[in-house]
Amino acid sequence: MLYGTPKLEPVDEAVLGEIEEMRRDLKYRLAEPHRWDGQLRRQLQARAIQGSNSIEGYRASVEDIESIMEGEEPLEASSAVAREIAGYQQALTYIQLLARAHAFRYDVGLLHALNFMMIGHHRDKTPGVARPGGIYIRDSDTGEVVYEGPDAEEVPGLLDELVDWLNAGDLDAHSYVRAAMAHLTLVKIHPWRDGNGRMSRALQTLVLGRDQITTPEFCSIEEWLGQPRVTMEYYDVLGAVGRRRWSPHDDTLPWVRFCLRAHHMQAQRVQRRLTEAGEIWMLLEEQVDADGLHTRCVSALYEVFVNTRLRRTRYQADEGLSQGQATRDLRDLAAKGWLQPYGETKGRFYAPGPRMRRIKERFAERVTPLRDPYRSR
User: Fold this and answer.
1) Where residue 186 sits, what CATH number does that domain have?
2) How far is CA 350 from CA 304, 313, 339, in A?
3) Which residues on neighbouring strands pair with residue 245, listed in sequence order?
4) 37 domain residue, yes or no
5) What digits encode the pLDDT tens for the residues 106-145?
6) Predicted confidence (pLDDT) per residue in 208-222, tens digit
7) What is the pTM of this model?
8) 177 and 96 share one domain
C-alpha cells in the first residue's frame, strides 16, 4: 500500500489552473527560437542542480555548476562537491532525454540506474542497489530520529508497487499531483543508503517531463526548494504528512498543496526571467552595435548579466570561436567598461564592469515580489 492521492479542493483547482495557464504561455513562447534560449536553459538546469544539492549540504555557485556541466574545473567548489554536482547533472541530463523518448516505461531498474548516476562515486554506499538494512533520518542539530524508513525486506515490493503506480495509477489525476505523489512516496520508501532526497526530486521532474508539461529545465521546482527558508518548510511538511515511520494514508493534501504553491512561485520566476532575457538581449545588441563591437559579444554580456562571472572558455564554446577571437572580444569588452577581469591564466574570469553594473541595478529596481497563490485568495 502506498500513500493515497488526495482530492483537490476548489482553491487547489484554482491554483492549478493558474499554473497551467503560465505553463501554456511558457510553452508558446519557447516554441519560437531565440538567441538566448540555450543560455537560459543552461542557467535553469544549473539552478535546479544547485537547489537540489544544497538541500543535502552540497553547495556551489551557479557559475561553478555551469563549469562542471561543461566538463571544466570549478573555480571555487571543492572536488568532493564537484563530484556530487557532476553525478546529479548526469542523472538530470538522462531525465531530459527520457522526457522526450518515444518508447518509455517506468521500471525499478531505471530508478536504481538513476541513483547510481547520482552517487556512483560513493561505492561504500552501494549505489544503485536497494539498502540492505534499516535507515533512520536524524535531526542534524539534535541527533533525534525524525523518520524511520520501512524495513529493508519491504523495499523491493514497495518499489514494484510504486513503478506499477507510475505506469498506470491515478492517471486521471493532474500531472502536477501525480509528480508530487511520486516524490512523496519515493522519499518515504527511502530505498537507498544515500541520494534518496535528490532521487525523489528528480523523479518528480521526470514525471512532469514525461507528461509533456514542458521541458524538465522549465518545470522543475528544485531551485525553489533549495532556498533556505523553503527548505525548512519542505522538511516540515514532509515530516507532518509522512509522519515518523512508513505509514501510508490518504491525508496527503498538505504535501500536494505545498508542491502546487512551489510550482506556481517557480513558474512566476521563470516567466520573469524569460521576459527579462528578451529585453536585456535586445538592449545589449543596441549597446554593442553602438560601440562598434561584433554582435556575438552580446552572448558574453548576457552571461554576466544573469550570473556574476564569465570564463573565456564558456564564451568561446557558446560562440564557436578560437581562443584568440574569444580573448580579443573579452579584452575589447573590458576596455569599453562592460567587463572587469580578475585573476590570471586558468583562474581568470570576467565580472560585470561599471556599465554592466548600472544595467543590472536598473533591472533589479524593477523586480516586484512574487505572488503567493494561496495567500491571495
Assistant:
1) 1.10.3290.10
2) 8, 11, 6
3) 148
4) yes
5) 999 999 999 999 999 999 999 999 999 999 988 877 888 8
6) 999 876 667 778 899
7) 0.94
8) yes
